[in-house]
Amino acid sequence: MTPRTVNPIRSQHSYGLIQGSTAYLIWGLLPVYFLMLPQISAFEFVAVRVVFSLVFCVLLLLATKQMRQFAAMFKEGKTMRQLALASFLIAANWVLYAVAVLTGHVLEASLGYFINPIVAILLGVLVLKERLRTLQWVAVGFACLAVIVLTIGLGRVPWISLGLAFSFGFYGLVKNQVGQSGTALGTLTMETLWLAPLAAVFIGWLAMADASALFAADPATVLLLAASGIITAVPLLLFGGAARRLPLSTVGSLQFLAPLIQFILGLLVFGEQMPVERWIGFGLVWIAVIIVLVDMLRAPKAGTMPEPKQLV
């Protein structure tokens, strides 16, 4: 029998799909991780996440022999300033996400990440002076209408959703300006390095005030909190592999997997309510998402994504 030949392109595509799907599956299931945590404030959790993420990233840099490349980033003043800004934007995103999950607003968090691609399109117009295609304008219109409907129905602006969408939108914008300066692991390490001193001081202050969940935890819980570093870095690295192997349209389609999983968890696991106005608002956002996907598929192929962006 003639040995079966393996198509290397198809194999790479399949591997990329597995990597991308796994990354978004981890991000989508993140609220379940929060259910296992002890009583901890959103700010302390983010501080703990920063410290353990830095430890894990440094270990990965050593294991993958990227430390010299990482050290070279310190000589690039502009890149350092951009990553400093990116670090505080992603920290704001992490805090908002932790607040959302810990206070029972998982649905608002999922809405924020559904809206995020629309915000990215809008920032492209306002900041980068890009010209939108007709379908993109229609998607922005539906998203704006959704926010109005939700504001009226909830009796307040959905600030968690908008905060998540805009903080990550601006984070992506800054990372876009960074471009290829450093690897995904290197830039994530630098971002956590910028935040680490503040995080360490905050954790120390909580410990001195005898108000730290980390220092009051048993060894098993400390390990659970330490896992936040792994949960931060692993999906980013998986996504980086997917971005190199898949077309832009495929990666763009996969990004909605995470908020969809979060939406299902909010309904079935966290038991959050979905009144009529919220269904209408989400429906309008989903229409906008479908329009974005259709436009993405119709647009000229852009190859693969240049640099992976982190979700939460």
Average of pLDDT: 83
Topology as H/E string? HHHHHHHHHHHHH
Query: How much helix is in the residues?
Result: over 70%
In total, the number of strands is 0
Radius of gyration: 20 Å
The helix/strand class is mainly alpha
> How many individual domains?
1
Shape verdict: globular
Low-confidence stretches: 302-312
The proportion of strand residues reads under 5%
Tell me the number of helical segments per DSSP (H or I, 4 or more residues long): 13
Q: What is the terminal-to-terminal distance?
A: 50 Å
What is the makeup of the main sheet?
Answer: none
Family: Belongs to the EamA transporter family.
Organism: Glutamicibacter soli
Pfam families: EamA (PF00892)
Membrane topology: Multi-pass membrane protein
Structure, described:
The protein is mostly helical. The chain has one domain (13-298). It is 76% helix and 0% strand. It has 13 helices and no strands. The chain has helices spanning 8-28, 30-35, 42-63, 67-72, 77-102, 106-126, 134-154, 159-178, 184-208, 219-245, 248-254, 257-268, 276-298. It is globular and about 50 Å long. The model is unreliable at 302-312 (pLDDT under 50). InterPro entries: EamA_dom (IPR000620), EmrE-like (IPR037185), RarD (IPR004626). It is found in: Cell membrane. Its main location: membrane.
